[in-house]
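quick one, 547 residues, struct below
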Amino acid sequence: MMRCTTLRRLLAVDDSSPPSTDDDIESPNEIEKGSEASLDMETQPEYPSSRTVILSMVSVCMAFFLSALDRTIVGVAIPAISDEFKSFDDIAWYESAFLFAFCISQFPVGKIYTYFSAKWTMMILTAIFEIGSVVCAAAPSSLAFIIGRALTGLGGSGSVVGASVVIVNLVPLEKRPKYQGFLGAMFGLSSIIGPLVGGVFASKVTWRWCFWINVPIGGLALMGLWIFMPNFKGPDVLKGSLKKKLSVFDPIGNALFTAGIICLLLALQWGGLTYAWSSPRIISLLVVGIVLLVAFSFTQWYQEDGTVPPRIFCQRSIAAGFFVSLGLGAALILPTFYLPIWFQAIKETTAIEAGIRILPLLLGTVIAVIAAGIIISKTGYYTPWLLVGCAIRIVGGGLMTLFRVDTSTGEWIGYQLIVGIGTGMTLQQTNIAVQTVLSNKEIPLGLTIMSFGQFLAGTISVSVSQTILTNTLTTQLAQKLPDFDPSILSSTGATQLQEFVPMNQLSTVMTAYNAGIVNIFYLTLAAACSAFVASLFMEWKSVKAKR
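---
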């Protein structure tokens, strides 16, 4: 509800005041040239009471926590899942299916949040997430598990984008970094709890409880959203014929985009593993994928209100932030996904021990994301902390490429801590930039662009990293163990490879496995470097500036 009373007072005219002259009246052009921030101030909504804000945030954080937990709890359970299904070649799909569904649903979800109730949108997508969790928990095969992961990705997209949209409706801009920090803390908390709980389930009970646990938590989140969250309407309302309403969701653009991403992902997933990179199938997928995405770009350029409107994407901080998100997406997901595998395959730890050993990475992330949110709320500026965080992340990424079979405890603790601090300092800054430079109506799409960049990079990097790991293993083992059968890789789990070679050759297998994962860490280092370069182009805006 707008500040109607305030506007009436502003419009009221005192009889004793002198008549206004032409010089006192702004021309239409002058008004149009007025800052977007001033327009936002005139239309600033009444924010809910503190009690409503707190109860709503608790419910939103629970839904956000579910999506974040689903990403972090899976890492330590992957070896157990692949061992049960005998599906080494499918490992990347267990994460890619989630990220892929998350990516292709981002822009439609952003549009839905723009035009429909944030409350009911988040509730429906959280329910879809719950259905996906049940499918994963009860999966009888690797394929069924992958389908469940895709459903959780689709549902999870609603809470990740929706959480920031809800914050926009709950509190004013200068307070939002602190609340964005709460979301970062939820991610950090899930990062700590996920590997530990996942390790316990995978080692002591069954990996399936990693997904059954989502059911009661999701039920509480849905109940809280239903009871406590105000029914915020979208910042815009759909009017006109059914055809006009559907055109807002850009069905042609979304179809081109989805088909293009599917082609590229399949090419990256199959290339070098199922088919040679030079095979007609892979080449065709790459060419068709690129053509479809180019066509998608053209459709967006000539639309005023397409899936990715040029007026939004071409804004300097949005464009730079998107490329920052691309770099950070790969740098964020790969260590949390492959470090547990490294500990279990190289250090021969249990899933529980692997979960405990990645705590330095996760604790560093939690501490840094909370500290960054508090500092930005006080200082107003987010760009300096983004730059510092990216620089620290580069240092940590470089150190992780030094991992060896005999890496000491002090080394892997220190390296992870540095990576975690850098990650935490960068985690929410692009979302804060969106809320600072865009109008309230444009914020949902801006947040979607950032989230899409992060998860697109995560999807592609996981697919590429699995190819890197498998190719490195195949090449090195073929060179050092001439009798090694490469087909063994597709019929074993992530930690079972050692069982197929004699004890006197076990060190060779571990060295090859370590080399494969270190090559993946080089990819994370390159991603962090690209994020730093992109962050140099971010505007230096303050959340405390007059709006």
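The chain is about 75% helix and 0% strand.
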